[in-house]
Amino acid sequence: MMDLRLAKRAIRLAKRHRTSPPIFTMSDELNFLPSLTGSFAKPAAENPTVEMVEAAYRHHGLHWRYINTEVGPENLGAAVAGARAMNWAGFNCSLPNKVEVIQHIDGLGESASVIGAVNCVVRRGDQLIGENTDGKGFLKSLEEIVDPAGKRIVMFGAGGAARAIGVEVALAGATHITIVNRSEERGNELVALLNDKTSAEAVFEKWDGDYSVGEGVDVVINATSIGLYPDVDARLALNLESLTADMVVADVIPNPPRTNLIKDAEARGCKVLDGLGMLVNQGITGIEYWTGVTVDGGVMRARLEELFGA
Ligand code: NDP
Questions:
Q1: Residue 173 CA: distances (Å) to CA of 61, 259, 275
Q2: Cα of 224 to ligand 1 centre, how many Å?
Q3: Cα–Cα distance for residue pair 290/121, rounded to 1 Å
Q4: Where in the chain is the domain with CATH 3.40.50.720?
Q5: Looking at ligand 1, which atom is closest to the CA of residue 279?
Q6: CATH value of 135-273 in 3.40.640.10, 3.30.2310.20, 3.40.50.720, 3.30.200.210
Q7: How confident is the prediction for the chain on average, in pLDDT?
Q8: Ligand 1 atom 4, closest CA
């Protein structure tokens, strides 16, 4: 048993040195068992989610931790079993586990089952349920700039992020979505999904050489991994002359937030949306699922901007 005097001293020291994250809060200062959440992805070192989530836990005095782990599909079953055994409240899945994780959990929420991918797993009773907050996170930040209802959209990519974003912007009323992708198979699959499950009209264009965005397009989205750290100098094969000042250009890449696409689009006079907004908004929803608390997105964005010098 820890001596009470020592415990109180430890609390004072933790407060004085702003131990990160706090081991103690006012209400449970002698509870040494935080609630656990985390992430399974590979690679994991470039993913700043842990800093963003723990900034929110600290700010709201939540006795919670977020553990960033490098886990690929080969160990995912064991990792999920471990999370169950340790009574984790939930976890994020990122590349390349978003589809793979489905076989290891007990059920899917509505958006995850339409999208066919899970980025956030939530413990409900003794079940682990997969949700998808990527598309909702993107939509929320897009809506701060433009309402997608009635809009024409061009999206590069047809992977997990593109599926989530495509479904959500279509459900929010976008009328026309062009999917531009390198692999025809993945591109056509996403187009079929959008035409089947939403009222948007979706078409596929194979990405072959520099793509020119057509007139009348309102929103251009990069949902590929081009530009993600460490490949920060990469550029989309895109005819920049085809970007016009009335377009919104959005990039999903959170690290670094100022990608070449964002810089190029700004130089063309477009309104731009970086990947941090999506990351913060999907984080708010995930934390709400796990803890029941709606956290302050400003605190999370500030921590990310501090890290990236944005
Ligand atoms: P996937 O692996 O599922 O999909 C990757 C997509 O990028 C595919 O369409 C792939 O095309 C395309 N792609 C990759 N490299 C190239 C290239 N050199 N040229 C052309 N196309 C390329 O990944 P996700 O969809 O899960 O993630 C994509 C990005 O989204 C990641 O960088 C991730 O960091 C980011 N993301 C950001 C979030 C945020 O909150 N800001 C949330 C979720 C994801 P093909 O099909 O031809 O292989």
A1: 38, 28, 22
A2: 3
A3: 9
A4: 135-273
A5: 40
A6: 3.40.50.720
A7: 91
A8: 159
Is any atom of ligand 1 closer than 6 Å to the C-beta of 41?
no
Q: Please give the average per-residue pLDDT across 91-99, as a whole number.
A: 94
Residue 290 has pLDDT above 50, yes or no: yes
Cα 150 to ligand 1 centre (Å): 26
Residues with a catalytic annotation lie at 98
Q: Give CATH 3.40.50.10860 domain extents, the chain.
A: 33-132+278-308
CA of 159 to the centre of ligand 1 (A): 6
Closest CA to ligand 1's atom 29: 225
128 close to ligand 1 (CB < 6 Angstrom): no
The Å distance, Cα 6 to ligand 1 centre, comes to 50
Please give the single-letter amino acid code of residue 70. Answer: E
Name the one residue in this structure whose structure tokens are 């682990």: 128
Using CA atoms of 119, 279, 307, 17 in order, give the dihedral in degrees to the nearest 10. Answer: -70
Read off the pLDDT band of 7 (50, 70, 90): very low
Q: Does pLDDT of 135 surpass 80?
A: yes
Q: Which residue has the tokens 């407060």?
A: 15
Does ligand 1 have an atom closer than 6 angstroms to the CB of 238?
A: no
What's residue 28's pLDDT? 60
pLDDT value at position 308? 87
pLDDT number for residue 1 = 36
23 pLDDT higher than 60: no
pLDDT score recorded for residue 111: 85
CATH 3.40.50.10860 fits 33-132+278-308, yes or no: yes
Contacts of 10 (CB under 8 A, 6+ apart): 23, 24
